[in-house]
Amino acid sequence: MKNYKVFLFFLVISFSLSIFTKENSHSFKVSVIADGLDHPWSLVFISDDEILVTEKTGKIRIIKNNRLLDESIKNVPNSLFAGQGGLSDIVLHPEFSNNRTIFLSFSEIHPTNKRLSTLTVVKAKLNGYALEDVEEIFKADPYRTAPAHFGARLLFLDDGSLLITSGDGFNFREKAQDLDNHFGKVIRINDDGSIPDDNPYSNGNITKRSIYTYGHRNQQGLTLSLDNSQVYLIEHGPRGGDELNILESSNNYGWPLITYGIDYSGATISPFKEMEGLEQPIKYWVPSIAPSGMTTYRGDKFPNWKGDIFISSMIPGELRRLKISKEGVEEEVLIDNLGRLRGVHNSPDGNLLIISDRSNAKIYKISPK
């Protein structure tokens, strides 16, 4: 594990926040662009002034010109809102401007056994404010007994393939090491649900062939580096042991054979933090921060942030900036007074948007002061 420096900065003025480092200074302000959302999970811009926001409760809300509309997107598939489950991520097809195709992840109840649920991904055409031609392209196998640890984060790669994080189902952590199921895996498929020929396990059954990496717990953040050459992933540890990893095809990230965390009960999950053949995180957190989303800053409003990774967290509720280099990972806390945060996203104008995590939630904008 490379050495890293941690820079903590205390922010003293709510909604007018300034922080300074030894190398440079930057200041920003925080404003609210929408409130009254019900457990929002993710968002996308469909135009410079229109945002679609998923709510775990099952709706896709519309923000237009910084105003939350009463209208919501029609024909959204039914999802299971229970435990950690619900409507989750939303991403645009790389050719969205031409094909108007979006992708959704959500937890879905078993058709006959209501005690079981699983992670499902669909694609659909956006026609005005309605979905058409909704098509399932992935369903995690097998179903799980607890509505927890779905993962559910989506990311398109440069080659047009789609990554899907599928968590360990909470009760099935040992299965994260097996290649005959989707527990604790990152999945890679094409935009039509077919499996790329260059996936690492091309000779297995359909479940195994869809697997890109394994040995994960509950991965809720994915982002590409600024030059799109690397994929970064964050995942929740148990009690301690949240991780930031560089994702590479066929790698085993160790859960639950190695971990920097312990069970919620205080019991030992594994006596090992390292093991030959298992990947080490480039950063981990003890105690946990509950990392819930991440993005790579790509705008021009904050030149000193370009290419840095931003992570939202739910415990204690922070926005963190990470600078990754050959020397390690430098980290600073930018915001720590907005409560539980669900996600962080780039906006087309170069600002950042933060999603809060509660029943009467807000979306905040970070812009230059």
Please explain how this structure is put together:
- With 369 residues, the chain is mostly beta strands.
- The protein folds into two domains: 154 residues, Neuraminidase, CATH 2.120.10; 179 residues, Neuraminidase (6 Propeller).
- The protein is 2% helix and 46% strand.
- The protein has two helices and 26 strands.
- The protein has a five-stranded mixed sheet with strand order 1-23-22-21-20, with no helix packed on it. Strands 2-3-26-25-24 form a five-stranded antiparallel sheet, with no helix packed on it.
- The longest helix is centred in the N-terminal third of the chain and has 4 residues.
- The N terminus is likely disordered.
Helix and strand layout, with pairings?
Layout: E1 6-8, E2 17-20, E3 25-37, E4 40-47, E5 50-55, E6 60-64, E7 67-72, E8 87-92, H1 96-99, E9 101-109, E10 117-127, E11 130-139, E12 151-156, E13 162-166, E14 185-189, H2 206-209, E15 211-214, E16 218-224, E17 231-236, E18 242-247, E19 283-285, E20 291-296, E21 309-313, E22 319-325, E23 328-335, E24 341-346, E25 352-356, E26 361-368
What is this entry, summarized?
With 369 residues, the protein is mainly beta. 2% of the residues lie in helices and 46% in strands.
Estimate the mean pLDDT confidence.
94
What is the CATH superfamily of the largest domain? TolB, C-terminal domain
Strand content: over 45%
CATH architecture of the largest domain: 6 Propeller
Total separate domains: 2
Low-confidence stretches: 1-25
* Helix content range: under 10%
CATH topology (fold) name of the largest domain? Neuraminidase
- Distance between the ends: 37 Å
Strand count, sense and barrel status of the largest sheet are: 5 strands, mixed
